Amino acid sequence: MLRLFYACILGIVGAGVVHLAILFMLPGYSVHDAWTRISNVAGYYEPINLRDGDPAASLPTPENPFIEASACRFNLEDGMLHIRSEGNVPFWTLAIYDERGLNTFSVSDRVSNGPFLDVAVLTPLQMQRLQGEIPAELNQSLFLETSVIEGFVLVRSFVPDETWQPTVGAFLNGIRCEPLPNL
Amino acid sequence: MLYRAFLVLVFLVVAIGGGAASIWLVLEKAPLVGSLTSGPWVAFPVAGTPEADPYSRARHVRTGGLALGPSEGIILTASEDSSARTLRSNCTYTIEGIMPSARLWTIYATDAEGNLLPDRGQRRPALHSEMIVRDGDNRFTISVSPHPVPNNWLPVSGNGRLQIVLTLFETPVAAASQLSELVLPTITSVGCDA
Protein backbone atom coordinates (compact mmCIF):
# COMPACT_ATOMS: atom_id res chain seq x y z
CA MET A 1 0.00 0.00 0.00
CA LEU A 2 2.83 2.29 0.96
CA ARG A 3 4.49 1.60 -2.39
CA LEU A 4 1.31 2.56 -4.23
CA PHE A 5 1.33 5.80 -2.29
CA TYR A 6 4.96 6.42 -3.28
CA ALA A 7 4.10 5.68 -6.93
CA CYS A 8 1.32 8.29 -6.79
CA ILE A 9 3.60 10.91 -5.17
CA LEU A 10 6.26 10.22 -7.80
CA GLY A 11 3.54 10.45 -10.44
CA ILE A 12 2.50 13.91 -9.23
CA VAL A 13 6.11 15.10 -9.36
CA GLY A 14 6.33 13.60 -12.86
CA ALA A 15 3.12 15.42 -13.80
CA GLY A 16 4.79 18.69 -12.82
CA VAL A 17 7.77 17.90 -15.04
CA VAL A 18 5.49 16.95 -17.97
CA HIS A 19 3.46 20.14 -17.41
CA LEU A 20 6.55 22.36 -17.59
CA ALA A 21 8.04 20.40 -20.50
CA ILE A 22 4.86 20.87 -22.58
CA LEU A 23 4.63 24.54 -21.58
CA PHE A 24 8.12 25.39 -22.77
CA MET A 25 8.15 23.13 -25.83
CA LEU A 26 4.77 24.29 -27.10
CA PRO A 27 5.91 27.55 -28.76
CA GLY A 28 8.53 25.66 -30.78
CA TYR A 29 6.19 22.95 -32.02
CA SER A 30 3.03 24.96 -32.58
CA VAL A 31 1.50 24.95 -36.06
CA HIS A 32 -1.07 27.66 -35.30
CA ASP A 33 1.26 30.55 -34.57
CA ALA A 34 1.33 33.50 -36.93
CA TRP A 35 4.86 32.74 -38.20
CA THR A 36 4.01 29.15 -39.24
CA ARG A 37 0.76 30.20 -40.87
CA ILE A 38 2.44 32.95 -42.89
CA SER A 39 5.34 30.63 -43.76
CA ASN A 40 2.86 28.14 -45.25
CA VAL A 41 1.89 30.57 -48.00
CA ALA A 42 4.70 33.09 -48.42
CA GLY A 43 8.42 32.67 -49.03
CA TYR A 44 11.11 34.92 -47.62
CA TYR A 45 10.96 38.55 -48.88
CA GLU A 46 7.58 37.88 -50.46
CA PRO A 47 5.15 40.50 -49.10
CA ILE A 48 1.67 39.15 -48.50
CA ASN A 49 -1.55 41.06 -47.79
CA LEU A 50 -3.13 39.20 -44.89
CA ARG A 51 -6.66 40.31 -45.75
CA ASP A 52 -6.51 39.32 -49.44
CA GLY A 53 -5.16 35.83 -48.92
CA ASP A 54 -7.00 32.62 -49.70
CA PRO A 55 -9.33 31.90 -46.73
CA ALA A 56 -8.31 28.23 -46.90
CA ALA A 57 -4.73 29.24 -46.06
CA SER A 58 -6.02 30.50 -42.68
CA LEU A 59 -3.70 33.48 -42.53
CA PRO A 60 -3.74 35.47 -39.29
CA THR A 61 -5.96 38.37 -40.39
CA PRO A 62 -6.17 41.56 -38.32
CA GLU A 63 -9.23 41.37 -36.07
CA ASN A 64 -9.90 45.09 -36.29
CA PRO A 65 -12.22 45.79 -39.27
CA PHE A 66 -10.52 49.16 -39.91
CA ILE A 67 -7.03 47.67 -40.16
CA GLU A 68 -5.37 46.01 -43.12
CA ALA A 69 -1.93 44.48 -42.93
CA SER A 70 0.87 43.04 -45.04
CA ALA A 71 3.60 40.75 -43.77
CA CYS A 72 7.06 39.99 -45.10
CA ARG A 73 9.33 37.22 -43.80
CA PHE A 74 13.04 37.85 -43.41
CA ASN A 75 16.26 36.25 -42.25
CA LEU A 76 18.92 38.78 -41.29
CA GLU A 77 21.64 36.22 -42.03
CA ASP A 78 20.96 37.12 -45.69
CA GLY A 79 21.93 40.71 -44.89
CA MET A 80 19.91 43.59 -43.51
CA LEU A 81 16.30 44.03 -44.56
CA HIS A 82 15.14 47.06 -46.51
CA ILE A 83 11.40 47.61 -46.59
CA ARG A 84 9.77 50.42 -48.56
CA SER A 85 6.41 51.63 -49.78
CA GLU A 86 4.76 54.89 -50.78
CA GLY A 87 1.29 56.29 -50.43
CA ASN A 88 -0.61 58.90 -48.50
CA VAL A 89 -2.31 56.61 -46.00
CA PRO A 90 -3.82 58.14 -42.84
CA PHE A 91 -1.93 55.95 -40.37
CA TRP A 92 0.48 53.06 -40.48
CA THR A 93 2.53 51.09 -38.00
CA LEU A 94 5.34 48.62 -38.43
CA ALA A 95 6.13 45.74 -36.09
CA ILE A 96 8.85 43.09 -36.00
CA TYR A 97 7.65 39.64 -34.96
CA ASP A 98 10.00 36.79 -34.12
CA GLU A 99 9.74 33.19 -35.32
CA ARG A 100 7.30 32.39 -32.49
CA GLY A 101 4.93 35.13 -33.69
CA LEU A 102 5.66 37.45 -30.74
CA ASN A 103 5.71 41.21 -31.27
CA THR A 104 9.22 42.28 -30.30
CA PHE A 105 9.42 45.85 -31.59
CA SER A 106 7.05 48.37 -33.11
CA VAL A 107 6.97 51.91 -34.44
CA SER A 108 4.23 54.11 -35.86
CA ASP A 109 4.31 56.44 -38.87
CA ARG A 110 5.17 59.38 -36.60
CA VAL A 111 8.83 58.36 -36.83
CA SER A 112 8.83 58.71 -40.61
CA ASN A 113 9.49 62.05 -42.32
CA GLY A 114 7.00 61.90 -45.15
CA PRO A 115 4.16 59.91 -46.63
CA PHE A 116 6.37 56.92 -47.23
CA LEU A 117 7.64 53.88 -45.47
CA ASP A 118 11.40 53.34 -45.64
CA VAL A 119 12.86 51.17 -42.92
CA ALA A 120 16.06 49.15 -42.60
CA VAL A 121 15.97 46.28 -40.10
CA LEU A 122 19.37 45.09 -38.95
CA THR A 123 21.23 43.34 -36.16
CA PRO A 124 23.48 45.31 -33.77
CA LEU A 125 26.49 43.76 -35.54
CA GLN A 126 25.29 44.92 -38.96
CA MET A 127 24.67 48.36 -37.45
CA GLN A 128 28.25 48.44 -36.19
CA ARG A 129 29.62 47.51 -39.60
CA LEU A 130 27.56 50.28 -41.14
CA GLN A 131 28.86 53.04 -38.83
CA GLY A 132 30.01 56.06 -40.73
CA GLU A 133 29.15 55.01 -44.23
CA ILE A 134 25.48 54.80 -44.97
CA PRO A 135 24.87 53.67 -48.55
CA ALA A 136 22.98 56.09 -50.81
CA GLU A 137 19.92 53.83 -51.04
CA LEU A 138 19.47 53.99 -47.26
CA ASN A 139 19.85 57.77 -47.03
CA GLN A 140 16.21 58.30 -46.09
CA SER A 141 15.76 55.10 -44.11
CA LEU A 142 14.88 54.66 -40.49
CA PHE A 143 17.23 52.10 -38.90
CA LEU A 144 15.72 49.57 -36.52
CA GLU A 145 18.11 47.39 -34.56
CA THR A 146 16.77 44.02 -33.49
CA SER A 147 18.04 40.81 -31.95
CA VAL A 148 15.49 38.84 -34.00
CA ILE A 149 17.39 37.00 -36.75
CA GLU A 150 14.48 35.24 -38.39
CA GLY A 151 10.97 36.61 -38.30
CA PHE A 152 8.53 38.80 -40.14
CA VAL A 153 7.71 42.46 -40.46
CA LEU A 154 4.06 43.43 -40.28
CA VAL A 155 2.84 46.74 -41.70
CA ARG A 156 -0.62 47.76 -40.53
CA SER A 157 -2.63 50.53 -42.07
CA PHE A 158 -5.83 52.25 -41.02
CA VAL A 159 -8.73 52.24 -43.52
CA PRO A 160 -11.23 54.91 -42.37
CA ASP A 161 -13.82 53.90 -45.00
CA GLU A 162 -14.15 52.19 -48.40
CA THR A 163 -12.99 55.27 -50.32
CA TRP A 164 -9.56 54.74 -48.76
CA GLN A 165 -9.43 51.12 -49.86
CA PRO A 166 -7.57 51.71 -53.17
CA THR A 167 -4.96 53.98 -51.52
CA VAL A 168 -4.31 51.65 -48.61
CA GLY A 169 -4.40 48.61 -50.91
CA ALA A 170 -1.76 50.21 -53.17
CA PHE A 171 0.39 51.11 -50.15
CA LEU A 172 0.26 47.59 -48.70
CA ASN A 173 0.51 45.71 -51.98
CA GLY A 174 3.31 47.98 -53.19
CA ILE A 175 5.61 47.04 -50.33
CA ARG A 176 9.12 46.20 -51.51
CA CYS A 177 10.91 43.94 -49.12
CA GLU A 178 14.52 43.11 -50.00
CA PRO A 179 17.64 41.81 -48.29
CA LEU A 180 20.82 43.85 -48.80
CA PRO A 181 23.32 41.00 -49.00
CA ASN A 182 26.47 43.12 -49.00
CA LEU A 183 25.65 44.95 -45.79
CA MET B 1 6.48 -8.66 -10.27
CA LEU B 2 2.98 -7.94 -11.48
CA TYR B 3 2.53 -5.46 -8.64
CA ARG B 4 5.69 -3.63 -9.64
CA ALA B 5 4.44 -3.33 -13.22
CA PHE B 6 1.18 -1.99 -11.83
CA LEU B 7 3.07 0.64 -9.79
CA VAL B 8 5.01 1.75 -12.86
CA LEU B 9 1.72 2.02 -14.75
CA VAL B 10 0.22 4.13 -11.95
CA PHE B 11 3.27 6.40 -12.06
CA LEU B 12 3.07 6.83 -15.84
CA VAL B 13 -0.68 7.47 -15.90
CA VAL B 14 -0.47 10.07 -13.12
CA ALA B 15 2.62 11.78 -14.59
CA ILE B 16 1.63 11.93 -18.27
CA GLY B 17 -2.13 12.17 -17.78
CA GLY B 18 -1.85 14.67 -14.94
CA GLY B 19 0.76 16.79 -16.74
CA ALA B 20 -1.17 16.92 -19.99
CA ALA B 21 -4.52 17.54 -18.28
CA SER B 22 -3.18 20.31 -16.07
CA ILE B 23 -1.54 22.18 -18.96
CA TRP B 24 -4.71 21.83 -21.03
CA LEU B 25 -6.82 23.19 -18.17
CA VAL B 26 -4.50 26.14 -17.62
CA LEU B 27 -4.26 27.06 -21.31
CA GLU B 28 -7.86 26.44 -22.33
CA LYS B 29 -10.02 27.09 -19.30
CA ALA B 30 -8.24 29.31 -16.81
CA PRO B 31 -8.60 33.09 -17.08
CA LEU B 32 -5.54 34.88 -18.45
CA VAL B 33 -3.17 36.30 -15.89
CA GLY B 34 -1.48 39.66 -16.28
CA SER B 35 -4.60 41.59 -17.18
CA LEU B 36 -5.18 45.24 -16.35
CA THR B 37 -8.71 46.38 -15.67
CA SER B 38 -10.44 49.73 -15.48
CA GLY B 39 -14.18 49.53 -14.87
CA PRO B 40 -15.56 47.10 -17.44
CA TRP B 41 -12.48 47.36 -19.67
CA VAL B 42 -9.81 44.65 -19.63
CA ALA B 43 -6.44 44.79 -21.39
CA PHE B 44 -3.49 42.42 -21.75
CA PRO B 45 -0.71 44.84 -22.71
CA VAL B 46 2.14 42.31 -22.74
CA ALA B 47 0.21 39.41 -24.30
CA GLY B 48 1.91 38.31 -27.50
CA THR B 49 5.22 40.02 -26.69
CA PRO B 50 8.38 38.39 -25.31
CA GLU B 51 7.70 40.06 -21.93
CA ALA B 52 4.61 37.91 -21.38
CA ASP B 53 4.74 35.04 -18.88
CA PRO B 54 5.24 31.52 -20.33
CA TYR B 55 1.54 30.66 -19.96
CA SER B 56 0.29 33.71 -21.88
CA ARG B 57 3.00 33.09 -24.46
CA ALA B 58 1.96 29.46 -24.97
CA ARG B 59 -1.66 30.50 -25.20
CA HIS B 60 -0.87 33.24 -27.69
CA VAL B 61 1.15 30.87 -29.86
CA ARG B 62 -1.75 28.40 -29.89
CA THR B 63 -4.26 31.01 -31.04
CA GLY B 64 -1.82 32.54 -33.51
CA GLY B 65 -2.95 36.13 -33.16
CA LEU B 66 -1.00 39.24 -34.11
CA ALA B 67 -0.53 41.26 -30.94
CA LEU B 68 -0.14 45.04 -31.04
CA GLY B 69 3.16 46.42 -29.77
CA PRO B 70 3.29 49.24 -27.21
CA SER B 71 4.14 51.82 -29.90
CA GLU B 72 1.19 50.70 -32.00
CA GLY B 73 -1.56 50.75 -29.40
CA ILE B 74 -3.57 48.84 -26.87
CA ILE B 75 -6.73 46.74 -27.07
CA LEU B 76 -9.36 46.99 -24.33
CA THR B 77 -12.23 44.52 -24.24
CA ALA B 78 -15.47 44.79 -22.29
CA SER B 79 -17.76 41.80 -21.80
CA GLU B 80 -19.69 43.38 -18.94
CA ASP B 81 -21.32 46.77 -18.44
CA SER B 82 -20.22 49.20 -15.73
CA SER B 83 -22.55 47.45 -13.24
CA ALA B 84 -20.78 44.12 -13.95
CA ARG B 85 -23.68 42.55 -15.86
CA THR B 86 -22.83 40.42 -18.91
CA LEU B 87 -23.24 42.26 -22.22
CA ARG B 88 -25.79 40.74 -24.61
CA SER B 89 -26.37 41.60 -28.24
CA ASN B 90 -30.17 41.93 -27.90
CA CYS B 91 -29.75 44.79 -25.41
CA THR B 92 -29.14 48.50 -25.79
CA TYR B 93 -26.16 50.15 -24.07
CA THR B 94 -24.78 53.64 -23.91
CA ILE B 95 -21.03 54.16 -23.97
CA GLU B 96 -20.36 57.61 -22.61
CA GLY B 97 -17.42 59.76 -21.63
CA ILE B 98 -14.12 60.89 -23.08
CA MET B 99 -11.32 58.79 -24.50
CA PRO B 100 -7.73 58.86 -23.24
CA SER B 101 -5.43 60.70 -25.61
CA ALA B 102 -4.68 58.64 -28.69
CA ARG B 103 -3.90 59.32 -32.33
CA LEU B 104 -7.08 57.47 -33.26
CA TRP B 105 -9.36 54.82 -31.80
CA THR B 106 -11.76 52.20 -33.07
CA ILE B 107 -14.63 50.44 -31.37
CA TYR B 108 -16.37 47.31 -32.63
CA ALA B 109 -18.75 44.61 -31.43
CA THR B 110 -17.93 40.90 -31.43
CA ASP B 111 -19.46 37.67 -30.17
CA ALA B 112 -18.03 35.83 -27.16
CA GLU B 113 -15.33 34.22 -29.36
CA GLY B 114 -14.12 37.57 -30.67
CA ASN B 115 -15.63 37.34 -34.18
CA LEU B 116 -17.01 40.59 -35.57
CA LEU B 117 -20.83 40.62 -35.49
CA PRO B 118 -22.57 40.52 -38.91
CA ASP B 119 -23.38 43.78 -40.74
CA ARG B 120 -26.79 45.41 -40.27
CA GLY B 121 -27.65 46.14 -43.89
CA GLN B 122 -24.97 48.54 -45.06
CA ARG B 123 -23.64 49.19 -41.58
CA ARG B 124 -20.76 47.40 -39.93
CA PRO B 125 -20.84 47.06 -36.15
CA ALA B 126 -17.72 49.23 -35.99
CA LEU B 127 -16.96 52.93 -35.48
CA HIS B 128 -13.76 54.96 -35.31
CA SER B 129 -12.77 58.27 -33.76
CA GLU B 130 -13.13 60.27 -37.00
CA MET B 131 -16.77 59.16 -37.47
CA ILE B 132 -17.91 60.13 -33.98
CA VAL B 133 -20.22 63.07 -33.33
CA ARG B 134 -19.09 64.86 -30.19
CA ASP B 135 -20.50 67.64 -28.04
CA GLY B 136 -18.65 70.87 -27.19
CA ASP B 137 -16.63 69.33 -24.35
CA ASN B 138 -15.23 66.56 -26.54
CA ARG B 139 -17.54 64.12 -24.79
CA PHE B 140 -19.41 61.56 -26.85
CA THR B 141 -22.21 59.04 -26.51
CA ILE B 142 -22.26 55.83 -28.53
CA SER B 143 -25.46 53.77 -28.58
CA VAL B 144 -24.89 50.04 -28.91
CA SER B 145 -28.29 48.82 -30.02
CA PRO B 146 -30.15 46.40 -32.28
CA HIS B 147 -32.39 49.37 -33.28
CA PRO B 148 -31.37 52.48 -35.23
CA VAL B 149 -30.36 55.41 -33.05
CA PRO B 150 -29.42 58.94 -34.20
CA ASN B 151 -25.79 60.12 -34.06
CA ASN B 152 -23.31 57.43 -32.97
CA TRP B 153 -24.96 54.07 -33.55
CA LEU B 154 -23.05 50.81 -33.15
CA PRO B 155 -25.50 48.31 -34.67
CA VAL B 156 -25.60 44.86 -33.07
CA SER B 157 -27.71 41.80 -33.87
CA GLY B 158 -28.37 38.31 -32.55
CA ASN B 159 -29.01 37.45 -28.92
CA GLY B 160 -25.83 35.87 -27.64
CA ARG B 161 -23.10 37.29 -25.48
CA LEU B 162 -21.50 40.48 -26.71
CA GLN B 163 -18.02 41.93 -26.40
CA ILE B 164 -17.07 45.52 -27.13
CA VAL B 165 -13.51 45.91 -28.33
CA LEU B 166 -11.88 49.33 -28.04
CA THR B 167 -8.49 49.86 -29.68
CA LEU B 168 -6.46 52.98 -28.90
CA PHE B 169 -3.75 53.54 -31.50
CA GLU B 170 -0.53 55.36 -30.70
CA THR B 171 -1.37 56.22 -27.14
CA PRO B 172 0.75 56.80 -24.03
CA VAL B 173 -1.69 54.42 -22.29
CA ALA B 174 -0.06 51.42 -23.95
CA ALA B 175 3.14 52.00 -22.01
CA ALA B 176 1.35 52.53 -18.70
CA SER B 177 1.19 49.77 -16.16
CA GLN B 178 -1.73 51.20 -14.22
CA LEU B 179 -4.90 51.15 -16.26
CA SER B 180 -7.02 51.89 -13.19
CA GLU B 181 -5.79 55.49 -13.10
CA LEU B 182 -7.24 56.06 -16.53
CA VAL B 183 -10.60 57.58 -17.21
CA LEU B 184 -12.37 55.40 -19.74
CA PRO B 185 -15.95 55.67 -20.99
CA THR B 186 -18.68 53.97 -18.99
CA ILE B 187 -21.05 51.34 -20.40
CA THR B 188 -24.64 51.68 -19.14
CA SER B 189 -27.47 49.28 -19.87
CA VAL B 190 -30.61 50.94 -21.23
CA GLY B 191 -32.85 47.92 -21.75
CA CYS B 192 -33.24 44.63 -23.57
CA ASP B 193 -35.53 43.23 -26.23
CA ALA B 194 -37.82 40.56 -24.89
Summarize the structure.
By secondary structure, chain A is of the alpha+beta class. Chain A has 4 helices and 9 strands.
What is the CA-atom radius of gyration of chain A, in angstroms?
21 Å
Shape of chain B: elongated
Largest sheet of chain B: 6 strands, antiparallel
Main sheet record of chain A = 5 strands, antiparallel
SS elements, strand count of chain B: 10
Q: Which strand-content bin applies to the residues of chain A? A: 25-35%
Strand order of the largest sheet of chain A: 1-2-8-4-5
Mean of all residue-level pLDDT scores of chain B: 89
Mean pLDDT across all residues of chain A, rounded?
89
Largest interface (C-beta under 8 Å):
A-B, 55 and 54 residues
Tell me the helix content of chain A.
Answer: 25-40%
Tell me the distance between the termini of chain B.
68 Å
Distance between the termini of chain A: 69 Å
In which order are the strands of the major sheet of chain B placed?
A: 1-2-3-9-5-6
| Alpha plus pi helix count of chain A | 4
Helix content of chain B: 10-25%
Coarse morphology of chain A? globular
How do the helices and strands follow one another from N- to C-terminus of chain B?
HEEHEEEEEEEE
Q: Structural class of the secondary elements of chain B?
A: alpha+beta
- Unreliable sequence segments of chain A: none
Seen as an oligomer or otherwise, the chain set is heterodimer
